[in-house]
Each structure stands twice: as structure tokens, then as C-alpha cells.
Amino acid sequence: MKEYKLAELESKFAELIWQKEPITSPELVKLCEEEFNWKKSTTYTVLKKLCDRGLFQNEKAVVTSLVSREEFNGYKSRKFVEDSFGGSIPKFLTAFMGGKKLSAKQAEEIKNLIDSFKESN
């Protein structure tokens, strides 16, 4: 997958598109004016940037995503674990838990999730 880095306002803009898609360009311009106090040119500039990065498309004045919110968040999560913990999920979980205990139900859910991702021999 491509590397996706978004500035804070770009992230808010992307969230707006994911919430409203499919959305026409004029509707997006109006929403951005209301939400961010942006001019039409700003909306189209940011939209073009995110389209060039492969996140969205603007076809016939209708904006839709090429990468879903879930795919994007998955990418960000994997990138965070890779950058912060050398890709080690056990190290990430240790830091994330910070000494907290799991309920029996939570532990079982995590065990089942791990089992579903195990390689078969």
C-alpha cells in the first residue's frame, strides 16, 4: 500500500468525505466553507492533493474514496507499530496495556483473534 501521511486539516477533510460520500464537489465546497471556513479554491486544492495521493477521486464532479476509512486507519496503525515498536506486536501490546488487566472475556476475544491470524503449518 502507498504511504499516506495527512496533516491535521487534511485528516479532518478526509473524514468529512468519508462521512458524506458520495458527495458532489459543489456540496463539498459548501461543507468546507461551513466546517473549516475555507474558500472554494482551498477545498479544490486540498481535494486535488488527496486525489493525487490516491485516497479519493473526483469523477464528473462526484467525490468518492479509493481507500476506505478502515483501510486508511489500518495503514496508520501498522505504520505506528512499525515505526514505534519495530513492528513487534507483543512490544506494542505491552506498552498499550501499561499494566492494566484484561477481563476473561477480553482475553478470550484476543486469543480467538490471534488464532484466526496464525499461519497453518
Short structural description:
With about 120 residues, the chain is mainly alpha-helical. It is built from six helices and three strands; from the N terminus they run αβααββααα. A three-stranded antiparallel sheet has the order 1-3-2.
Q: What does this 3D model show about the protein?
A:
The protein has about 120 residues and is mainly α. It has six helices and three strands. Strands 1-3-2 form a three-stranded antiparallel β-sheet. The protein starts with 7 loop residues before the first helix and ends with a helix.
Q: What's the β-strand tally?
A: 3
**Strand arrangement, major sheet:** 1-3-2
What are the secondary-structure elements, in order, as H or E? HEHHEEHHH
User: Which oligomeric state applies?
Assistant: single chain
* pLDDT < 50 runs, ≥5 residues: none
Largest sheet: 3 strands, antiparallel
Radius of gyration: 19 Å
Q: So how many helices?
A: 6
Which class best fits the helix and strand makeup? Answer: mainly alpha
Strand content: 5-15%
Span between N and C termini? 27 Å
What is the overall shape?
Answer: elongated
Overall pLDDT level: 93
Q: Considering DSSP H and I runs of 4 or more, what fraction of the residues is helical?
A: 55-70%
Helices and strands in order:
Layout: H1 8-20, E1 23-24, H2 25-36, H3 40-52, E2 56-59, E3 62-65, H4 69-85, H5 89-97, H6 104-117
Antiparallel strand pairs: 1-3, 2-3
